[in-house]
């Protein structure tokens, strides 16, 4: 499978009254359309042309970061205006991204290099690196500074100290882990395993797997509700979003969306799902668990992220 695959980077819903204006924005990358769309209050409010084949997207400190695996680069944009600020060259195939809240650095999974790098967000200088398993896909950073990496072809999650870039643990999961999402309290990490069609639940305190449960055909993106009660899983091959009860780990609902859903992120009681083959973003009401809209975007939407607050 090509490394130019998009994903879900989960950013918890935010209290907008105390945060900058950009914190109410959902960003969507369109791979074939080479565009970054802005979605606000449930509608597309604008977009920016970007370099070809953007894959994943992450936010931090008022900045938006896009990975270009085949272009060996990372785009940095201003979250408030959408203006492209700079393009950072990257030595490998940048795929998974994670940014601290201050936006001063950026963690990058090198799909073909089997490593994760910490870069300066200003000039792309590699500050530190660590070896991962094969084909590292998505990555997430917790508030304690630990970095979790889905080692897709090694069927495990690697955990690193983000400051020292030293390995803390290696956790076996299902087959071909790809998407990751932390619970709001960060006590649980959920892992979407695309070839075993299930989700592994990891205790982030003990760094051990607690359970692996069915989650629909090809779980490709993950998000967790703000109260931690529900796990939402995009099913690429089924055109659905599976909703799991976080306490019982049973399926609550399956929601039809567009074709080949991939990235997913939550904001203000809604889930936003990128439908790669439909060129749309599905909007799901989390109270009713129903799709309430489909928003047209540029060709090939794949990555979705919600802006974090902070100072650029």
From TrEMBL:
Tree of life domain:
Bacteria
Question: What PANTHER family is this protein classified in?
Answer: DIHYDRO-HEME D1 DEHYDROGENASE, PROTEIN NIRF
Q: Please give the name of this protein.
A: YncE family protein
The record places domain YNCE-like beta-propeller at 153-268
Q: Which organism is it from?
A: Methylorubrum zatmanii
Q: Which NCBIfam families match?
A: beta_rpt_yvtn
Question: Which key words are in the record?
Answer: Signal
Where is the secretion signal located?
1-23
């Amino acid at each position: 499978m090509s490394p130019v695959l998009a994903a879900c980077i989960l950013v918890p819903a935010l209290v907008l009254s105390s945060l900058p204006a950009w914190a109410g924005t959902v960003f969507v990358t369109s791979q074939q359309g080479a565009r970054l769309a802005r979605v606000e209050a449930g509608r597309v409010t604008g977009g920016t042309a970007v370099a070809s084949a953007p894959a994943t997207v992450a936010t931090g400190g008022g900045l938006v970061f896009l990975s270009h695996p085949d272009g060996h680069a990372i785009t940095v944009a201003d979250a408030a205006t959408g203006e492209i600020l700079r393009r950072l060259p990257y030595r490998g195939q940048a795929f998974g991204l994670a940014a601290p809240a201050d936006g001063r650095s950026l963690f990058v999974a090198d799909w073909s290099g089997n490593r994760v790098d910490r870069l300066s967000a200003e000039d792309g200088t590699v500050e530190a690196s660590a070896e991962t398993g094969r084909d590292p896909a998505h990555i997430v950073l917790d508030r304690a500074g630990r970095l979790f990496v889905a080692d897709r072809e090694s069927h495990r999650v690697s955990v690193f100290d983000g400051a020292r870039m030293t390995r803390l643990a290696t956790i076996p999961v299902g087959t071909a882990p790809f998407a990751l999402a932390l619970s709001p309290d960060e006590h649980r990490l959920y892992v979407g395993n695309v070839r075993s069609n299930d989700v592994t639940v990891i205790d982030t305190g003990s760094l051990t797997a607690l359970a692996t449960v069915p989650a629909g055909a090809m779980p490709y993106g993950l998000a967790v509700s703000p109260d931690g009660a529900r796990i939402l899983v995009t099913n690429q091959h089924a055109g659905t979003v599976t909703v799991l009860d976080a306490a019982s780990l049973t399926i609550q609902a399956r929601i039809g969306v567009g074709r080949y859903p991939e990235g997913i992120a939550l904001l203000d009681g809604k889930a936003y799902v990128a439908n790669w083959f439909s060129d749309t973003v599905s909007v799901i009401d989390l109270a009713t668990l129903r799709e309430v809209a489909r928003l047209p975007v540029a060709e090939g939407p794949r990555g979705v992220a919600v802006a974090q607050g902070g100072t650029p």
